[in-house]
# Entry
Amino acid sequence: MVPKKIRVAVLTQEDSFVIPGNIKLLGELENLELVAVVNIDAAGSLVNKRSLFIKGFGLIQVAKMGIVTMFNQVLNFIDSLFFFKLGLLKSLKSVAVACNSEYKIMRDPNDQSNIDWLVKLNIDLVVSFSAPCVFKSELLKLPKFGCINLHCSLLPKYAGLLPSFWALYEKAPMLGATVHKMDDKIDNGAILGQIKISRPSQTSMFNVIRDTKRAGGHLMISVINQILSGHIKAQVNHVKTEDYYSWPTVSEIKAFRRNGGRLI
# Structure
């Protein structure tokens, strides 16, 4: 029996471009109470991979990305001066305030202290927007309806890390996003929904990440509505060893650049 209003916690990594808007969409659902927004500051977060990007893409590309990010940080600072009432949504904290939700930064959501904190919130569903860590058994079993994740590729292809890079690196004809159940393996759970999108005309990593996350945010809303209506249909997710990708090496990023690939 689905409750009239389910209690949801979002676990994700810091982002100033798309994820705050996706979270706001969740907070606007009438049959959903967004009780917490968790910023997972783990080693696998994109913001902690600067040295890899500098070595691979070069200072100019990373500087361009940095300028865009700094502009958003300035907007977020201005928003914070008005207690995030401007609605600019340039950080996870800003959207947590906008949705009257608790906000917390964690290194590892699997730590017992963090599990205990989540238990006290009486959560029905955990929504992950590409959380940068593997959820372990205790966390996976905590919410009544489990944990679901947005992965920005058409699973089972490009499971694992940085799917936007690998889809461009291998010149995939179609891009997309997948919402899937989470288990104790990366991107391995049953598929709950998928959406295909065409390659953007300017195929930089930034554009692909932006477009797939944005489409994935609307897909997440659709999947949650199906869960609430009891009409969700899961598909088996056959992830093979060759479908899984890790972080690219510096040499692979340089090869991507030689073929016209860009960070932004």
Observations:
- The CA atoms of residues 13 and 87 lie 20 Å apart.
- Residues 6-258 form a domain with the Rossmann fold fold (CATH 3.40.50.170).
